[in-house]
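Sanity check. The docking grid for zinc ion depends on where the pocket ends up, so I'm generating a full predicted complex first rather than guessing from homology. Inputs follow.
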Amino acid sequence: MAPEGPGVLYRFVGPRVIAKRDDGIARGTPIASPEDVLRWVTSNTEGHQSQGEVTVTFVVNEAGTLLIADRHSEHVACAGNQPVRAAGEMCFVVRDTSVTVTRISNQSTGYCPEPECWVGVVAALREAGLEPTEGFDPRCEFRRCPECRAINLLKHDVFECVICSAELPREYNCQAP
Ligand SMILES: [Zn+2]
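Predicted complex below; grid placement will be based on this.
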């Protein structure tokens, strides 16, 4: 049975030691409206930071809901160790009662989501009454090294492992068993 919702599901592929710390309870706060963002910012940042730009860790869960957490949180904790439709970092600018999304990336070495997971981000933001940006910034591409198994974030289309210098595959391979 195909899972509902846009895009594909990404399971956690980072170090097991990080996943094990988690008890399966999502630490991320579900965002269903701009007011949810305002509430989160008020209760999770110092007073002087409640106006201006705030960067958070985010995932889009299987149900298609946006979950946000402190930017120092692991994506796997934000998601409660569950598969996700998207993961990365998001910036909000909060002014009085208005919330604007100013930057979204798919930078998550825990889930290694492909740039195509953008559809899931757009759907989750629209569902919450928030306007998405033009696209991922940065737009990350991940590969797993076939030799040393390290997760690589591709930079400038260089297909070479930063750990062992082995050649990295052209095709996405991070979710392969
Ligand atoms: Zn390697």
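Relevant for the grid: Residues 141-177 form one domain.
Also worth noting: The radius of gyration is 16 Å.
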